[in-house]
C-alpha cells in the first residue's frame, strides 16, 4: 500500500478511466480488473511512488497486459504519475501505450501484453528475491484464458515444488477460458501444492484478506467477475 494519502479515491476511478479514449482500450479486459488492482495498491502492496526503485519493495506484474486502462487509472490515483497523462493515453507520443512499458511508466515492473509470460517471470523474480534474503512479495495478475498458455504449467508446478511463499497469483475469472469449468482453476493450483481459493472479484474485503494471506507456500486467488460477452 502507498505510505502517503493518494491524490484520488476509489470513487474517482470511473472518471479516471473515462479520460482515456481510443480504439485500443480493451474496455472489458480493463473493467474486470479494477477492484483487484485498487485493493492491491491501496491495501496490499508495499510500494509507493517514492520507492519505485527500492530493492525491498513488493512487485506487481500485470501479465494480463492487453487491457491496462484500469492499471493506469489506479497508478495515477496513487500518484505514480500525473493524472493528466491519462488524457493522451494510446496517442503516438504518449507513455501510456496499449501495453504497459516499464521504461516509460513509473511503477510498471514488466512490459506485458504477450499472454503467458508474467507468471514465469514472477517465478524467476521470487527465486532471485529469496536468494537475496529479501522479504519482498511478488503479485501477478493473470486472466483465466491466459492460463491456457502452456508456459504457465511449468511455472505453476515449479513454484509449488519449490514452495515459493513470496508469490501470489490472482486470476480474473470471467469464464473465457477455452478449457474452463467451475472450480478448475483452484483445483489446478491446489494439485501443485499452492494455497488456492476463490473470491468475489468485486468484494474488497474478501480480496484483501486473500491477498494478505501468507500460508508459507505460493498463493492462488481466483477472482470471479461477470462472464465475458464480447
Q: In percent terms, what proportion of residues is strand?
A: 5-15%
Rounded to the nearest angstrom, the distance between the terminal CA atoms is: 33 Å
Shape: globular
Tally of helical runs:
8
Main sheet characteristics: 5 strands, parallel
Name the structural class. Answer: alpha/beta
Order of helices and strands: HHHEHHEHEHEHE
Please identify the oligomeric state: single chain
Cα-atom Rg, whole angstroms?
Answer: 16 Å
How many β-strand stretches? 5
Low-pLDDT segments, ≥5 res = none
Could you give the order of strands across the largest sheet? 1-2-3-5-4
Mean pLDDT: 90
- Kindly state the percentage of residues in helix: 25-40%
Protein architecture, described:
Residues 28-224 form the Transketolase N-terminal domain. It holds the Pfam family Transketolase_N. This is Transketolase. The protein is α/β, with parallel strands linked by helices and 230 residues long. Helices cover 32% and strands 13% of the residues. It is built from eight helices and five strands. The protein has helices at 13-18, 27-31, 34-44, 69-77, 118-131, 151-162, 184-191, 204-212; strands at 59-62, 138-143, 167-173, 195-200, 219-224. A five-stranded parallel sheet has the order 1-2-3-5-4, with helices on both faces. Helix 3 (34-44) runs parallel beside helix 4 and helix 3 crosses helix 8. The chain is globular, with a radius of gyration of 16 Å. The termini are far apart. 44% of the residues are buried. The model has no long low-confidence stretch (mean pLDDT 90).
